[in-house]
Amino acid sequence: MSTAGKDIVGFLNEGIENDGELREYEKTWGALSSFLNDYEHLKGLRHLTQKDIAAACVTTQSAISRLERLRGKPTYELLRRLSEAVGGSLFVSPMADTT
Predict the structure, then answer these.
(1) What phi and psi, each to the nearest 5 degrees, are found at residue 89?
(2) What's the pLDDT at 56?
(3) The model's pTM
(4) Per-residue pLDDT tens digits for 28-38
(5) Residue 88 CB coordination number (10 Å)
(6) What is the pLDDT at residue 99?
(7) Cβ contacts of 99 within 8 Å, gap of 6 or more
(8) Which candidate, 26, 52, 18, 31, places its Cα nearest to that of 84?
(9) Residue 14: pLDDT band by 50, 70, 90 thresholds?
(10) Which are the contacts of 71, defined by CB distance < 8 A and separation ≥ 6?
(11) DSSP string, 29-95
(12) What is the predicted pLDDT for the residue at 73?
């Protein structure tokens, strides 16, 4: 990572550490936000729509839309199916950002 990249990451981490509300948001939504970034990337590469993904996950397009907007906490099983629907696989680790 470049020096500028390290500075930005440090700045963001410092902001999270010093702001209780932001720290709580990161604790609650950080992992899902990271998952969704990767999911959106794979979804775009494969030119998939929410409707395509909903069909593959045996759910509704509106459920996929809610998930993409961080409106609710998905189950592990739904995250696994979403990963497969976009051609990925779900990896869960207690190591957080170090893996």
Answers:
(1) -145, 150
(2) 96
(3) 0.70
(4) 677 888 889 89
(5) 17
(6) 46
(7) 91, 93
(8) 52
(9) confident
(10) none
(11) HHHHHHHHHHHHHHHHHTT--HHHHHHHHTS-HHHHHHHHTT-S---HHHHHHHHHHTT------TT
(12) 83
